[in-house]
Structures
1.
Amino acid sequence: MTDQNRRLTILLVVALLLILIGGLLAWNTQTSGGTIQIRDVRFMGTNGTLMSGLLYIPPGVTAENKAPGVLAVHGYINSRETQDGFAIEFARRGYVVLALDQTGHGYSDPPAFANGFGGPDGLRYLRSLDLVDPDNIAMEGHSMGGWASAIAAAAYPEDYRSILLVGSSTGTFGAPEGTAEFPRNLGLIFSEWDEFSQLMWGAPVAKDIVSTDKLKTLFNTTETVEVGKLYGSIEDGTARKLYMPRTTHPGDHISNEAIGNAIEWLQLTLKGGNGLDPNDQVWYWKEIGTFLGFIGMVLFMFPFGALLLKTPFFSELAEPMPEAKGIAGGGWWLAAALTAFIPAITFFWLQHRGNELFPNGSFWPQNITTGILMWVVGNALITLVLFLAWHYQINRKAGATINHYGFVWDGRLNWRKIGKSLLLALCIAAAAYVLLLLGAAIFTIDFRLWVLALKPMSPLHFQIFLAYLIPFAFFFLVSSMAINSQLRRVEVGLGRTMVINGVILCLGIVILLLIQYIPLLSGNPLPLSEPLLTIVAFQFVPLLFIVGLVSTYFFHKTGRIYVGAFLNALFITAYIVAGQAIQFAF
């Protein structure tokens, strides 16, 4: 074995160990060392809608020894795993927890928003379990999941004991208006820097919701609502309490304070449980474990792909890079800045145009994915125009030809090698995907950290994935050509080049987030508004960095743009499609 092969093998083993260690850590955390059962359940909802959820069953809970139940519902464009922090801690305190996939989310049938977002069906199913005390049930919902919970409370007013809205509200998007009596025993966790304060409570700044008439009506007071004060009576079902942790709307999921507030409310309003202190929390070890899995899977693709390139079948793809004919000097910095910041400048506008031009249908049925597709294709076209202008006006005069840009062989397209490049990318992506499937099958996890979440696809997701794949591939082909030829720096080694290209691709989104969050964390509204798409932007910081790593690595290994671009297209398209809501009713 050569030294290079030995290094690649060691890196491959490290990647697999990260996945194994991460999976064991996540499993041990969410099951409390194997004492809590986690079942992947399916049940039939309204109008034949198949619903999905994760059911957490604490030790000792049986039909003869029933426990309190909690319905935990995620928000828009999330899934049941997003509620892991809450679900893990609720189950550790002796509650049976159903972490529900809303309709059109995760593995629940589409369309999104149908059947009260799935909330009534979730509550009905939880009450039907012989493990659950039917007179001792609470609901917890984040954002749109709070609306699902409020709708369930209105549909079955006698079937729950308390409710907890996290970053959510009553009287929004179909949820019934709140009064002094409805919902019963309501706890509200609304973070100090919640991006949706205007939508939820009519206050531009989250701290100011305490003075809104909407919240005062709900809390049955004419005075400013006090954070942490118990209003009303738990026995009468009119209890109200406002918590305001120091975090953001998506930050509720990874906040010890917010999760501790939720535990406290359930312990106040439900009978039973083991009384474990709300501050005794371990959920974050699960996040660390699934993040190790994510890192391991991404890391796996590099040595696995490099080793495949050494096989007789794929070895002809391992060619030297073409002669460098990129931009030098101050022009490089200008090109890098344009590459970084044009995607950030167009992030909101192009996504909105995508939804206007391509309304949801059976071909492209995901609202957010279609918006992202319009954004990336639009940026690919902008990049291509700028690249061609640079080539014909400047670089061709310096002796550059299409041979220098890594997409042709001796001046022409070689379709056999392009096809073999696609096959190599498919082999790498398929092997990595198998690791994801094994994580789900063995440890009941996906690979994630906070809003960064990679889930296995359902058969419907795979169908949708195929529909979105080609436009995404176009973007990655153009992007790879630009960063690996126009921005190529021969004096920099592979490792540094990978990092530089990754930073260039994600830097604009980082700046966009800073522009939004520095004012927000200073007590002001988001200056550009767009709270939903701003939260969507978070995941593109690591994703675009990974795109830069993959594109650069395989360009250096093959001398062409295709393997890296195809692999990025497969990985990112699958990532986005599996994690988005499906708005069309198939």
2.
Amino acid sequence: MPVIDYRNVDIQIDSKIILEDVTFSLAEGEFAYIVGTVGSGKSTLLKTMYGEVEISGGRALVFGEYEMQNIKNRHLQKLRKRMGIVFQDFQLLTDRTVHDNLDFVLRCTGWKNKTDRELRIREVLELVGLPQKGYKRPHELSGGEQQRIAIARAILNRPALLLADEPTGNLDHETGDYIMNLLHSVCRKENMTVLMITHNEQWLKAYPGTVYRCGGQKLVKKSQLVEECCEE
């Protein structure tokens, strides 16, 4: 069963059509991109997947059980615990150490045993290549290191789905390349579905995945774009 399954989905905000007739699905362990110009609806589409933006038509199924067109507030927390979200601006708690940022998330998501929390924190810091940075505060880290911690935070609960909104947008090419390699590695090692928004289309060749393009209020898969161009 697909991790994401959207059928003829319409998205509106304040009566303005953002996207219409969106149909696509993502399988377990799939790495996929959404590309498109600023304002084309990329981030809004991601927000419908964790219930921050409502859909106005069609059927949107997440994890095979959450119907986003009529999901109840009491189910949103359970839904969000099964996904990780990485933002462009990191959104780390600046008044806490890296360790305490991660521990805060674990405690908020039901990890009561301190030993289990410490073990998981060590595991994710090792996975993102920063095992010795737990005592640092975010402002003591480089931008790339902060993004790696943001990824560590997003995968703490071993999510089935990782949503990444421009995770390399504020980083130089070398650091961005490291982040892309990390995301691909996480996808493979954890069998995690990753859906990433990017404006940097060089990543599409360097780190292959399924590609969707937002534009003209539509979401179109790359293979469909190629077929349409050939037909013309």
3.
Amino acid sequence: MDLAAYYDAYWETVGDNFDEERLGLIVQRVNAGENVLEVDCGPGVLAAKLKARGATVVGTDLSPVAVKRAQKRGIPTQQVDLDKEKLPFGDGAFDTVVSNNAMEHRIFPERTLDECVRVLRPGGKFLLCLPNIGHWLCRWWLLRGRFPYVRHSPTDSTHLHFYAIPDAIQLCQERGIHIVEIDGSASLWAKTFYPAWVRKRRFRPFYTRLAHRWPALFSRDFVLLGYKQDAT
């Protein structure tokens, strides 16, 4: 399958409406003055928010269509297929590397992670966001002997890989990333995923707090914050 062509078609039809709650969890963990790379940045919505925060941001993406959209936002962006290519940056080139709900779409996600770590300086910050297959609804489906592919859920049909928090932490640790913080986004906008009672207005603040407090069980997406350990 030609993933670049697939995501060209995808980004030609998808607008700029993104999960603001999830993006906010990433943005608040990036500081002004940081030199940031966002891999697989899509149309540059998150990258533009990071730039507005005062960071210097560059991006890469598999899709030429997404690259052009990110460039129109003023984000220097290059087309890179991380399943086949290395990032066009030197070792330790960035203070911060961000991967936002992207690795699950890759054929070889470990190669993407390897490259993220390579271009991150020792002591640099790594922010990894992934859909949470450990969500209580996914566990309930499995208990009932089911694994439905549900749009806008951790089992979305565009996902080639599935991650729970302990597995993602292990992947990072194996590459010298020490995880210091875990947070979760409830993403209650996902009508196709959540039952109606969960999304009721009076219940939403309570459930959102649950996702932050116990992301492994209640978050639709989790964010890991880690730092690259000095090999010496």
4.
Amino acid sequence: MNDTIQILIAMVIYMAAVIVIGVLYARRANKNSEAYFLGGRSLGPWVTAMSAEASDMSGWLLMGLPGVAYWCGLADAAWTAIGLAVGTYLNWLIVSKRLRRYSVRANNSITLPEFFSNRFREKNKVIMFLAAIFILIFFTVYAASCFVTCGKLFSTLFGVPYQLMLIVGAVFVLLYTILGGFLAESVSDFMQAIVMLVALSVIVIIGIVQAGGLGEVVDNAREIPGFFEFFGLATPVVDANGVQEVSEAGKPLFGAASDYSLLSICSMLAWGLGYFGMPQVLLRFMAIRKEGELKRSRRIAMVWVVISLAVAVFIGIIGRQLFADAHLTKSAAENIFITMSEAYLPSILAGFVMAGILAATISSSDSYLLIAASAFSKNIFQGIFKKSASDKQVMTVSRITLLVLALIGILIALDENSVIFEIVSFAWAGFGATFGPLMLFSLFWKRINKAGAIAGMVGGAAMVFFWKLVLSGLGGVFAIYELLPAFIFSSVCIVVVSLLTKAPSKEIEEDFEAVRTGAVGESQ
């Protein structure tokens, strides 16, 4: 049996397991819209933690982050990982309990737009509509990044055209999401988080052995100017097409190391701010069965995150020694995990490791599509246009929305030179700036009002686009990651507009105090 068939068999076994989970939970998931979109608030601490992190990290963890480390060295990847680890911890520590409590108080909200709308007791549903639209926009971009991962994975493994494999992967994700809903997605994400962690750990251990030990890896990395530094950056010498040049001896060429400024560090650390507005993580806080179990979930999540991020970064460093000239473009660098898996593992095991990438992709894209579909069907269709819509109608509209979003995501991902890291970074900034400040102020500032909430959402989203598309090209201070200035601008909009307009009603303030003091009740 040839290697390709063995890899394929292993991946088929894995996908079959995922489908079985979908089938097992399909009946419970389709009972009503709350069960489909939030799992009936029945998640335990392990599933809550692992599914939150698996859906958050996606194929970016196994391909995007190692690719960054492989291409330009330690600094960008490591500072990003540090920012994400800190952001993860703070989100679980200060947001999770209060959001779980507040979502119950806010008329048992089961989606993020619904929570914001009910939090401010709005009647005309402006906040709900805007939040749902932004979720549709940014999650479609996010889903596209997952489809790029599928396309690159299968194209690299089987030598099949990228676009065909992109479509095959998207169809599988779509069918699975339609079948099982949030509960199946969360349970399978638990399994996928384990697969991702094992896959990363196995490859990094084997890579170190093949490289001749940890010392050899470090020595090789230090030979490349700026490659193994926290305050420097390697600079690949590339031609007009972005392809790294190679010496006559076959060695990839690097220029002088670039300085890694405080501005660059702040830019990478700013990734951590994104967590406060990330719907796929925030929904897990709302879905856990008991508020008191969130502390255990936080500890589980942090262990997984720290190990996974550290190992993913180091895979890129190891890969640059073992396969120095294998990937000569920034986009191709994201295949280093696949290259190492195929080279050093028996084919059947390589297939299961490849399933780690598939796991990451599925765990994220089904979350993104499901949340985006719920934003339209539950918050726009039922919440605004047809308030009398039955649960059956909401579910039907949701599935139609899933199909449309998947098609748009495929169109965005058609370019096989797409860089996963760059696609994810834009969508991450969008969510972080649009919802992050609003979430924090909604949970911890009594004076925030509806006008301030709208200003914060619109201001944050607009600044992400403006900074990315207009200002970033100017270089200098404007080259900073757009999430940081947009997050600050959104926060300023919320405070200024709230203070200049009418204070919240007495009922809204009573809700806030009940949540702050814990009067909502643990049983809820």
